[in-house]
Amino acid sequence: MADYITTNIRNIALIGHGSEGKTTLTEAMLYAAGLVDRQGRVEDGTTMTDFDPEETRRKCSISAATAPVDWNGKIINVVDVPGYFDFVGEMIGPLRVVETAVIVVDAVGGLSVGAEKAWDYAGAHGLGRMFIINQMDRDHADFDKISSQLRAKYGNCVVPILLPLGKGPTFRGVVNVLDRKAYEGAYKKSVEVPMPENMKGQLMECYSYLIEQAAAADEELMEKYFETGELTFEEIKAGFRKGMKDGSIVPVVAVSAATGVGIARMLDLMAKYFPSPAHNGLYWAGKDPRTGEDITRICKDDQPFSAFVYKTIADPFVGKLSLFRIFSGMLSGQTTLYNPGKDKTEKCGGIYILRGKKQVVKESLHAGDIGAMAKLQYTSTGDTLCDPANPVIYPPIEYPKPCISKAVYAAKQGEEDKVFSGLQRLMEEDPSVTLSKDPETMETLLSGQGEMHLDVIRSKLASKFGANCVLKDPKIPYRETIRKTVKVQGRHKKQTGGHGQFGDVWIEFSPVTDGSTDIVFEDAVVGGVVPRNFIPSVEKGLRECMVHGVLAGYPMVSVKAKLYDGSYHPVDSSEMAFKTAARIAYKKGCADANPVLLEPIMHVEVIVPDDYMGDVMGDMNKRRGRIIGMEQCEGGQKIIAEAPLSEMFKYATDLRSMTQAWGRFTMTFERYEEVPADVAKKVIASADKVMNRSEEHTSELQSLE
User: Fold this and answer.
1) CA dihedral 90, 376, 446, 418 (to 10 degrees)
2) Which residues contact 276 (CB under 8 A, 6 or more apart)?
3) Distance (Å) of CA 6 to CA 3, 9, 75, 649, 696
4) Helix and strand counts by DSSP (H, E) for the chain
5) Rounded Cα gap, residues 653 and 558, in angstroms
6) Dihedral sign from CA coordinates of 307, 311, 314, 318
7) What is the tens place of the pLDDT at every residue in 250-277?
8) HSE of 257, CA atoms in CB hemisphere, 13 A
9) Which of 407, 428, 419, 406 is closest to 466 using CA atoms?
10) pTM to 2 decimals?
11) Fewer CB atoms < 10 Å away: N or C end of the chain?
């Protein structure tokens, strides 16, 4: 593989909605460049970038993959990004290391939610953008309609550059507006042909758009254009390049990834006009880890080395591969690597260029290039690697917060270590997945961006590490309390010969009404009816048994227990006897004190476009939710509500379905509330079944013994 200097490097990310042909487009680019002998198909599982067994099985991309394409003396580092929203975390890293976001749009369906979100993400990262209207060979494909839709949505910056010759099954070539030439044929067999007469009017209209936007990209060009009404071809190209970099020009091209028509001319545009990492002295902002001061690195070979790790691949056989982008300086096998975030020095285990899963060994890489290193011991995704004499640390990647959680268990007893060590390795590969321990239920929760996301993690765990796990809905941390005051006697008397057991207490149980969830114990004993040395045992007995409520075994909260009377025996009374008497009083008293079940209520904020307000509010009511308020916000309306946690486990999936993936939400714990009677009956019945099964299991074990 040739050695490419910074000015000859182009870094792009293919992003957009799922199933719109990004992977097929990547494959077509590789085939056009002669890098694969045959164009693979997603349906057959033969593409270069969908190499993971899960991708082959599901027939969709689930991980970002790189595919460098050599074209006309330039290297185009293509990062194929998954389009499904469950894998949005795979898009965040690549957008940090490219100069241009290429947004793929379907020639029939037009602008989709995924494409609009991709536009927003690209804008937030300050990237140049291009639209590819793909699948022009399909029936009912309409370039004019889709490009007009894009201009209506995003304004005059959207400029058609490659116009289609024919459409649907007759799509045979493209017209390049920039050089005003027509081409027919697929892949490298695309050749220049005479301009069709019926295209000249549309060509000149688009050419005038292009001149205006090229002039608007540069003040000097704008002044000349106002004065003369003309620009030279070289000036138009210069303005186009500048507009591509700053986002004031967004070209639109027509291609068919399946047939290869338009692919070669699209690659020409990328190689000639896309910004390189050295374009206009591009620099990267970071901080000095020693002082915290802001510093910058210019993307040139003669600068101190610095690189950013944007993705990690965990392979149980090959080991860990760290994918990185060089922000400044050059990298070779002799480069000393310092990780300022971990304060560790790393040893480079080999430098590679990845094309799918194929590893191409490299001696060195120039500033701006994308590569991979093997077996870095301390470095993970989002880390900076730099010259130890000139340290810099770049901002880490901010992943979206998980919106769905499942309790994870080992499928077989004894394989817990294998399961959780495998999950830790997969979290290195995908940091948008988190693993946490719920202190309430003591379950381990696996959290991610959607049900498909978590199912993919489960499948990868089995295929990569041979560890099988089970995902279940998390337990609800219910609570129990009482609603009335009762006075009850707890009396424990046992005579077995010799010293007996005697403890007698009178306790008043009452609800705590000040909002506190604590268990309050009050010593109101007078006259020594219960000796002072036994009172702590009474309190301890109560606190131990209140861990399990009287309805369904959930912890008891907001209860006050006042010990006000009792009796003792000078010989038979003991700490254990009074502890047991307290337990008896608890079970009798709380059962008569109108016990109720409490459930966690969550504060939910949902942001949706106005069109979906009615559906979302109706759905929230079905979930026993209460709408607290609404307010205007960026992206539509913010619905503020409160809803029971038990009704919200699959809300991420349901909201995505209701709003065509536009809706998003956040959820935090608010308070506990009483469970409605009909729901409480089901919860108690379910708890009884679990307890009965546990008792049956214990009896079986005892009989075996």
Assistant:
1) 140
2) 6, 7, 8, 9, 10, 99, 368
3) 10, 5, 10, 48, 71
4) 16, 35
5) 35
6) negative
7) 999 999 999 999 999 999 999 999 999 9
8) 26
9) 419
10) 0.86
11) C
